[in-house]
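seq:
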Amino acid sequence: MPRTTTEVGAVTARPAIGTRTQTVTMVPVIGCLNVAEEILGPERDWQGENPDQVRFLRDFYDKGRNQMRDLQGLESIADRDPSVVNSFLAARHFSIELPPAQGPNPFYVASVFKALIRWLQVGEVTTVRNRYPAVRMGAGMTRVLESPDWQNPIGQIRTQSGDQVFMTVVEQFDGKAFDLVDLAIRIEREAHHTEKFSGVVFPMIDYDAQVDISWLEGMHTVGSDGHPAVIEKALQQTKVKMNEVGVRVESAVGMSMMRMNMLSGPLVIDRPFLLWIRRDGVEQPLFVGHFYEDTWKNPGKIF
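struct:
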């Protein structure tokens, strides 16, 4: 027997703790790195310092950096004044703020991505589990798919823009955000149409949360001037609203970056040390001394 329509399309993906919604969009993250090139120079080669950074660079940034440069719905800014970047975020109704960076030669970047997607037709307002607000979409506005790699049916909602929106039940998710992307790709890869269902019913969504992308902090590159740059702070806020009219996804990322000088700081001699003096034309040192802490005193005037 086919399942009832109320069982199709309710996305309940959860992080490892199993109590909260988890979202992932790398578009504004890549947007930040792309706009940083206005200050660092074009085509920077970023280097990862932890497994998440390495995976991000390999699976998302390297594949998507050029595709994101002219992506519709993506806005970005780079400036040396954090108030300018924070004003850019606030004007787009995001509350994340970048504090002044603590490192040398800082600059700041932000990127905002918006996807405003209208269903092909307005759906019918209903409920799921007799209490949660939901939307019923008829067969003419939806398709239902099955995949050999996934046990639950997949709802596909038709949109005015041609963007494709998929939904399927995921009772529990115990992986990282990267793994959530991999799961969606795997489910969709071999999905095929089925005639078992007469439409799709799915919950409405109202979501606004800060997403932890602190794993990006410490990722570094070298500018076209030869000076290193490192991400000091990375913040993300994502909003999702979905009802009978469509789905609205907005995500903002802000980053502060430091420009390091080629010199990493002074050589600090803070242990017993050797000192010697040489003079041109004299083969051996004029003086050699090995000094311990008992001699580390201010001698006063010496000339």
